[in-house]
Write a structure and sequence with these properties.
eight-stranded antiparallel β-barrel; mainly beta; Porin; about 210 residues
Length: about 210
Amino acid sequence: MKIIYLFLITICWSATSEAQLIRSFGLKAGATNSSQEWDYTYLTDFTPETRWGINVGVFSEFLNIPYFSFVTELNYVQKGMKKDLPVTTVTNPDGTGEYITWDTRVDYLNFSALGKLRLDFSLFTPYLLIGPKIDFEINQENSLGFSNIVEENFNDVMYGFKIGVGSEFKFDSFNLLAEILYDYNFNDLYKGEYLTVTSDSFDFRIGISL
């Protein structure tokens, strides 16, 4: 499945690279709010807090025809989770009242191929984005200073789709844009005998196109 999905992404990128009509290209940057769900078979589920990270990348937009175009993106994205854990001791097994923060950051290189439905007005262009994406893990950090067997065995390739809305604001020689996208994964971040970890995220981005 992963090979087929990567092949489809590659085809989309290859097709757009041959297009004769390039509508625009530019930069996007912003923040990603990611979440994880730890679903245990026999224990109470562990629900970490969402984690904010940065999101920065480049894009090209092709097929300059009415109402539709095609956007390819290459992004660096920080995802992960965090959770405040109570400090326990032998004499205080229920907690001392102090907490330490478990903060795991997972960095990805993201490739996205998105269809763009848009309405062109004189001063701005609202649009809808939807299409497949694939993430490759490039780095992982843990604030506790050590990793665990679950995080060590996270899937390093995540595939799914993005859907979102945005708008371009037109100026003489460039456009400014703002958008929000939901990033959904088809595969699990981790799958074990007694534990399944899933993840998703929201991207909040601004950018400039030329």
